[in-house]
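Hi P.,

Sorry for the delay on this. The queue was packed all week, but I finally got your sequence through. Input first:
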Amino acid sequence: MPNLLDIRRRLRSVKNTQQITKAMKMVSAAKLKRAQERVVTARPFANKMTQVLSRLASRTDEDFHHPLLDQREDNKYLLVLITADKGLCGAFNTNLIKAAQAFINSNPGKQIELLAVGRKGRDFFRRRHLPVVGEYIGLTGKGRVEFGEALQVARDIINRFEKDESLDKVFVIFNEFRSVLQQRVVLAQLLPVARETESDANQSKP
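Then the structure:
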């Protein structure tokens, strides 16, 4: 049986571990708060930019042509799936992968290729032999995505759409941050730029 000295050493060890984990918790809380502030601050600009692009697309003349606006056929899709690089984050990755799988199943007969941002989505669909034409690993695992990194992904998507005339549409699946405990899976069409509908215009009016 452990003697009194062993028990005291174990108590000190537990207290030291508690202090370390408390410090780690405080650091994590500070990082989460900064990340949350960046998301909330950037969201209005992103929403307004999407609205402006859709409105411009809807007001162009029929004779005006641009590779990012022209409607194509409906045979080949590029799916941009944004997941995390690591696990241990609840249903974060699972919900995204389920949404991507549901999108694929709901479009039988379509040729679908995957551009993976994040290791989890890439590994899942690579094991299921879905064509992964591009991947960006390490962006989502470091806590912050720099503008230059996001620009690189955006340019890659645009170049693929402009050069491959057989590529008809580009979709993206991502998690929209609501709160620490709640995220909403979003499926949106990136290209060609969706035109603003009458209901969208009415919703945007003050």
